[in-house]
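Translate sequence into structure tokens.
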Amino acid sequence: MLGAFAFSVTYGVGVADPAEKAPPPNPFEADIRAFEAQDAESMPPERQILFVGSSSIRMWNTDKWFPDRGIINRGFGGSTMSDAVYFFDRIVAPYRPRAIFLYEGDNDIAGGRPAEQVRDGFVRFAALVEEKLPGTPLYYLPIKPSAARWDVVDEMRRANCLINVVIRDHEWMHYVDTNEILLGPGGTPRPELYLEDGLHLSEAGYALWTDIVEPLLPE
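Result follows.
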């Protein structure tokens, strides 16, 4: 295994304190404190499966779609890859999960960040997993295509490709193709798989994602 510093340097990304990744006050502090209050009342057992990321994770009813699989859902809508890094010590590390499923990058690209910056954020996140949760498999759910953000779909695809290059070098990381099933014959998003906003998945969309992800969940 590579240490966190060696891992990041391999990809030209320096390792800094996660607190440097997002300037305070962080807009998601209230969301994270809500998770911590929930944990204070009833802390999930260690070695469950962690889903973390932006609204595509938050809106995934993991209790419904993955009953009795021991899923911890820590999605916070509007977040970016840097936010996942920033809050790693509060919403990832404490659970000591047996696997992590990450969805981030959608809001990064929509906010004007280039694909390389999203890739670098992923590398930092992975470095923290390697350092603080060694041996934990990391599954990356790629940035999904959507009608609402079709104008930046090429940059989203480029970010996914750059991250997949990183993943291919590491047996403990996995790229989960949850995108092709969302596209119709013309290569554009299937409307029935999205809500009316053209951005978030519908129940039918989550059913397809669940079919892909469920077999990957470790026992």
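Note: The beta strands are 49-53, 71-75, 99-103, 138-140, 173-175.
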